[in-house]
């Protein structure tokens, strides 16, 4: 029986170890701020990290075929990569950078838009930090109110007796 249990545990460990393997691919653009598309779906502005799950056969093979992506800058300049293979051996965190094609007008416009994207992200981070600080302050206020509402050194003596009647217990306190 014990060896059967060990076999079940080993099977579960082996079968579950690779099924949920993930890699994070961060897509950058130079200049930053290009829109990233996977097929026709807008994924967001670069830099952006997408998470890809590996199936057991892909883990066993050591790689996963990822759909092609393209970036488009605000000026209309584009760059793309067709379907490509991500390798587990490269690491859990991988990066791809799209360089804006030279010779296409609008480079200054793209650079300015990239700065705006960075500015908006910084403001979002500041708002999130302020919200976290507000939550902490609210929890501290609630804890202070609870502590102030709790009487200190209250010594209440209670005399209780219990009696059993059938399957019911009755308790009386004085």
Please give a structural write-up.
- With 174 residues, this protein is α+β, with helices and mostly antiparallel strands.
- It has one domain.
- 37% of the residues lie in helices and 34% in strands.
- The protein has 3 helices and 11 strands; from the N terminus they run H-E-E-E-E-H-E-E-E-E-E-H-E-E.
- The chain has helices at 2-17, 56-61, 107-149, and strands at 22-30, 35-38, 41-45, 48-53, 63-66, 69-72, 78-81, 84-87, 93-99, 160-165, 168-173.
- The strands form 4 sheets. Strands 3-2-6-7 form a 4-stranded antiparallel sheet, with no helix packed on it. Strands 4-1-9 form a 3-stranded mixed sheet, with no helix packed on it. Strands 5-8 form a two-stranded antiparallel sheet.
- A hairpin with a 5-residue loop joins strand 6 (69-72) and strand 7 (78-81).
- The radius of gyration is 30 Å and the shape is elongated.
- The model is unreliable at 3-20 (pLDDT under 50).
The helix count comes to 3
Work out the count of structural domains: 1
Give the biggest beta sheet.
4 strands, antiparallel
Q: Which band does the percent of strand residues land in? A: 25-35%
- Could you tell me the number of beta strands? 11
Q: What's the SSE pattern?
A: HEEEEHEEEEEHEE
The side-by-side strand order for the widest beta sheet comes to: 3-2-6-7
Q: What is the percent of helical residues?
A: 25-40%
Straight-line distance between termini: 57 Å
Sheet/helix structural class: alpha+beta
Low-confidence stretches: 3-20
Shape, please?
Answer: elongated
Q: Indicate the mean pLDDT.
A: 82
């Amino acid at each position: 029986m014990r060896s059967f249990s060990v076999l079940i545990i080993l099977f579960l460990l082996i079968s579950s170890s690779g099924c949920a393997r993930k890699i994070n691919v961060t897509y950058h653009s130079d200049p930053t701020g290009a829109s990233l598309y996977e097929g026709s779906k807008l994924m967001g502005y670069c830099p952006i990290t997408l998470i890809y799950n590996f199936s057991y056969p892909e883990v066993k093979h050591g790689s996963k075929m990822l759909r092609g992506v393209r970036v488009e800058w605000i000026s209309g300049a584009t760059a793309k990569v067709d379907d490509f293979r991500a390798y587990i051996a490269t690491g859990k965190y991988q990066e791809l950078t799209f360089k804006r094609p030279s010779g296409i007008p609008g480079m200054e416009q793209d650079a300015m838009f990239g700065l705006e994207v960075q500015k908006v992200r910084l403001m979002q981070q500041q708002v999130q930090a302020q919200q976290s600080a507000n939550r902490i302050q609210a929890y501290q206020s609630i804890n202070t109110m609870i502590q102030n509402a709790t009487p200190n050194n209250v010594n209440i003596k209670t005399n209780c007796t219990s009696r059993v009647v059938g399957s019911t217990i009755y308790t009386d306190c004085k």
